[in-house]
Design goal:
Layout lengths: L2 H9 L6 E5 L3 H13 L6 H4 E5 L10 H9 L8 E7 L6 H12 L5 E7 L5 H6 L4 E4 L7 H10 L4 E2 L1 H11 L3 H11 L6 E2 L1 H7 L8 H9 L3 H11 L5 H15 L10 H20 L5 H13 L5
Parallel strand pairs: 1-4, 1-5, 2-3, 3-4, 6-7
Helix pairs in contact: 1-2, 7-8, 7-9, 8-13, 11-12, 11-13, 13-14, 14-15
Length: 305
């Protein structure tokens, strides 16, 4: 399951009594919390929405048992009470784990209890929670366009599929950066967002996108490649460009092609992954020109299928 599946659960009002939500990106935890909050009317949130950070329980003089007392309390206004705990569930004490087991075996009928897990879930905890409705919040690359349209829709706006794809092409698949750009777009005062709107507000009216860079690489046009890169680098950092390249090449793959069984794609994605790791681990500026030369050489040795 994925973030799209989570949104479907939200649309149904989170009907299950207990949920386990998990993601590799903390940004998606925050997104999930915002979606959950929207289910509770603002005037009821002080009574029917409770969010607890497991790492702050001692500072707040709270115990896990006290949290479950809140979950078991009858809700106000006849609405369903929603209680969220966020943090690393694997760090719960053995006593608290037994308390959790007891609650999961007989959850409160008028409550939704949501565990928003951070970090890797250990096997013993996975086994303990096997009866719980489990949803991954990670967004597949094929679902990013859907997420953008949902995000824009919450602001009372529309965005065309072409514009959403163009936005990803400019920014890359980084959800936090995409969210920031969507905030900018929402201030345009337009009800429907098209490519030209994004080009003007994000790309500063520039005429190139990541699509053009990949096309220039495919054409083996070195002069065009570095001209486009120079323009793109004025408004996007190298990390975002590498993510955008990875996303675009993934979309360009012939359906059914497995990169591990295709030497060209294997070496291409290895080069992109190596550059991505180098930036994350070193924190220094990455020589993008070197990466583009590698991709160009790979393309020169690749015969179109």
């Amino acid at each position: 399951m994925s973030f799209k599946a989570f949104l479907h659960e939200v649309e149904k009002g989170l009907p299950s009594p207990v949920y386990l939500l998990y993601a590799s990106d903390p940004f998606l935890h925050r997104e999930a919390l915002e979606e959950i909050k929207r289910l509770v009317p603002e005037e009821e949130r002080d009574f029917n929405l409770h969010i607890f950070d497991l790492s702050l329980l001692k500072e707040d003089s709270m115990s896990f048992e006290m949290i479950l007392d809140v979950v078991n309390t009858v809700s106000f206004f006849g609405s369903r009470r929603i209680t969220v705990i966020s943090g690393n569930l694997s760090k719960l004490s053995k006593k608290d784990q037994k308390i959790l087991d007891t609650y999961i075996s007989k959850p409160a009928s008028g409550s939704t209890f949501i565990m928003l897990h951070e970090g890797i879930l250990k096997k013993d905890m996975r086994d303990r929670l096997r009866r719980v409705k489990s949803v991954s919040l990670d967004i597949r690359e094929t679902e990013i366009t859907y997420w953008i349209k949902q995000k824009v829709g919450l602001k009372g706006l529309e965005i065309s599929d072409a514009a959403a794809d163009y936005l990803i092409g400019l920014i890359g698949p980084d959800m936090g950066l995409l969210s920031s750009e969507i905030e900018k777009i929402s201030l345009l005062g337009k009800k429907r967002i098209e490519i030209d709107d994004i080009s003007e507000i994000i790309a500063g009216g520039r005429t190139y996108s990541i699509f053009d860079l990949v096309e220039a690489l495919t054409e083996k046009n070195a002069e065009k490649i570095f001209k486009i890169y120079k323009t793109l680098s004025e408004t996007a950092d190298d990390y975002s460009l590498i993510g955008a390249l990875n996303w675009q090449y993934s979309r360009n793959m012939t359906p059914g092609v497995n990169p591990t069984n295709n030497e060209y794609f294997l070496r291409l994605f290895e080069a992109l992954n190596s550059a991505d790791i180098d930036i994350k681990s070193s924190g220094r500026a990455y020589p993008m020109e070197y990466l583009l030369v590698k991709l160009l050489r790979l393309q020169e040795g690749h015969l179109p299928s």
